[in-house]
Each structure stands twice: as structure tokens, then as C-alpha cells.
Amino acid sequence: MGHSTLNQPGRDITRRASLKQVFALTGVSAGAALLNACGSAGATATAVPPAAASAAAPGASAATSTEGVPTTSSTSQNATSTIVVAANAFLATLSDTEKKTGLFDWTDTAQKQRWSNFPAAGFKRAGLMWGNLSATQQNAWLAVMQALLSTEGYNRVMAEWSADDALLAQEGTGGGFGKNNYYIALIGTPSETDPWQWQWGGHHVTINATIVGSNIALTPSFIGVQPASYTDANGTTVRPLGDIADEAFALVNSLDATQQKTAVLGTKYIDLVLGPGQDGKTIQAEGLPAAQMTADQQAAFLKLIGHYTGLGNDATAAARLAEIKSTLDQTYLAWYGPTTEGSAAYFRVSGPTIVIEYSPQQMGGDAANHIHGIYRDPTNDYGAKYTQ
């Protein structure tokens, strides 16, 4: 039996090859334009799971290996062109009725904010339900996600998503669990210049991607999982957030006694402060500022943050991480709970342009096996800085 977290070597192929596979299945003519866009950007080295196309199947497992994968050299504008072509290819697979269901005006603020960590039984979403789409439509949508997300980001999201099928197998259908109960919405018209957003999500994972020219915002997004560890169809143990948890514990345990006294603010984990429904709210930074960390600790702190800022493609991730580095001294680590690795503990990263929360949840038994998480930018949720 294997064991997989998001940073192990393994079974990746190039993004271009995966998109060829997707469009061989979809048969939409826009696929050729998408491949040309990838080629002109020189973006043939970024890897995606070889099972990317088959991930559309409700029971499919997600590959989660990213270590050793070369990065792309694409520019932000080239990336946007690729995303737009992929989105239009997806739209070409939809009927008029499906377009009416899945497309929303750019001014529809209610739809932008219509997301939750709750399963289908507890929250009414709008858009196209995954389980109602054909395999061709599903694979065309996966190409949109691959075009915008990084390899690590895409693999992580796929693994979180597959966890909900594992939960479905454990709990049954009553709660509305499972991959089929996720929704897609396009808000605005895919464009290389005008603002638009795609929204994909369901129980425990939601990605809100706002595209404005070469700028991409992936906040707010919900990065959670239940179960936090499961066995996929290949007998591999998958921990979608395993690298994040392991690195967080390593960081807090690298602190000396004085630093820990400042960073650790409680003996028990707490719930999310800025979760779903908390748009527009802010939180006072607390805990240990990076200015009081050693150089090695700061590097580990940035690596942890990078799993969130690196959700998007290379150009987006680089710009986002540079923004965080510019105010790193004003960025804080707060911890609630034990510091023993594997225990149920909450952590928060908060700074001028970032809030990350990782929160265990008691419901379902072991709180460490049920994680709620949020990634926000208090200055740029839903691309606010790009649309003012």
C-alpha cells in the first residue's frame, strides 16, 4: 500500500499532453486553439495528473504527486488567454438551457458570495451540478481548472474533492456528500480584458477565481477536507492537506519557549473566524510576527504560506508570494491547541494582504480528520483591487 501527500514524486505528465487527452474526449474545436495557446506560451513543462481526464468519473481517485515537477515559463497574459480559451471550450459543450443555469451576470454579487463548506443537504447552491453533466462536459471543465491552477493546486483540489466520495462511502447519501454534488458557475463573460469569475465547489472545497486581464485572484477559497486521510482506489493513503499540517507542526515546534509563548494563544483548537458568510470582515493580527522569527523559521513560514498562494498558476503564484514577502515582518502566526504532531490544532496566518485559517472540527469523531480552512486577501477578495 502506498502513501501520498502533496509533495511526493510520482505519476505526472505534461499539461499539454493532458489537455490533448481532454479535447480528444470533448471533440470541441476550441481544443486546438487551447493547445496552440499552451504551445505559444511555452507552457509544456507543467505537469498534471495522468488521470486528469478520468477524474471526472464520480468515483475516480486523484493523483497528488508534485515533487520534482518543472514549472512553466508562461506569462500572466498568456495564462489568461489559455484560461479564456478553455472556458469557451467548456461553454461550447453546454446547451442553451444549461447556459441559463450556469451563467450569471458579472454584477451578480449574491452569486459570487453563494458558496459554503456545507454539503448539499445544508446549503442551496446555484449553477451546474457536476452529477448532471456528461463526461465530455466534465472533462472540458477540468481543462479550465488545469489552465488556471498550478500543478500542486490542481492535485490538492482533486484530492480534497475525492475525499468527499470517501465520506459518501462512509456516511451514505443522506447528507448530500460526494463529488456529484459540486457546482460550477461562470460569473461574467470569459474575457482577456474584462473581469469575470469562475466558481467551483461543494462540501469542504470551493475555488473562487476572478480573472481581470493578466491578474488572477483566488480569494476567498475554502481549503478543507473530510476525511483528512483516506485510501484511494489504488490502495494509496491520500492526505490532501498532509503537507500543510506536517509543515505547520514542524514550524511551531521549531520555535523556542519565548516564541511559543507568543504564538500559542490557547490550549484547544477554535473554529474559523473568517469562513463562509464573513465576506468584508477583518481580523486583528495576533500571535508571533515573522519579524521575531529566525531566517530559517521565516523560510519555513513562507513555504507554508506558499501552499495557499501557490494555488494558482506560476505567474499568479509568483506575484502573490512577492506581495506577501513585501510585508512579511507584519505577517503573524497564531496557534490554538497542542503542538504535538498529529493532534487537533488550529493555526492562522494573518497579514496586510493575507488570512489563512486551518481549523479541526469535532463533528465526525476525530477532529484532526475533519478540517475546515479558508484562504483570503482582506484587500482583494473577489479581485476587488483589480475591479475598482
Our count of helices gives 12
* Biggest sheet layout: 13 strands, mixed
- Low-confidence runs: 7-74
Structural class: alpha+beta
Give the end-to-end Cα distance, rounded to a whole number of Å.
51 Å
Shape: globular
Considering DSSP H and I runs of 4 or more, what fraction of the residues is helical? Answer: 25-40%
Taking all Cα atoms into account, the compactness measure Rg is 20 Å
Mean pLDDT: 85
Order of helices and strands: EEHHEHHEHEHHEEEEEEEHHEEHHEEEEH
Strand content: 15-25%
* Number of E strands: 18
- Oligomeric composition of the shown chains: single chain
Give the key terms.
18 strands; 388 residues; 3-stranded mixed sheet; alpha+beta; globular; 12 helices; 13-stranded mixed sheet
Task: Provide a descriptive summary of the structure in words.
The chain is α+β, with helices and mostly antiparallel strands and 388 residues long. The chain has a domain at 239-387. It has 12 helices and 18 strands. It has helices at 15-26, 30-40, 76-91, 96-102, 109-112, 135-148, 151-171, 242-254, 257-263, 295-309, 314-326, 384-387, and strands spanning 3-4, 13-14, 47-48, 103-104, 128-129, 183-187, 196-202, 205-212, 215-217, 221-223, 230-231, 237-238, 264-266, 288-289, 332-336, 346-351, 354-360, 371-376. Strands 4, 5, 6, 7, 8, 9, 10, 13, 14, 15, 16, 17 and 18 form a 13-stranded mixed beta sheet that branches. Helix 2 packs antiparallel against helix 3 and helix 8 (242-254) runs antiparallel to helix 10.
Structure described in brief:
Helices cover 35% and strands 18% of the residues. It has helices at 15-26, 30-40, 76-91, 96-102, 109-112, 135-148, 151-171, 242-254, 257-263, 295-309, 314-326, 384-387, and strands spanning 3-4, 13-14, 47-48, 103-104, 128-129, 183-187, 196-202, 205-212, 215-217, 221-223, 230-231, 237-238, 264-266, 288-289, 332-336, 346-351, 354-360, 371-376. The longest helix has 21 residues, at 151-171.
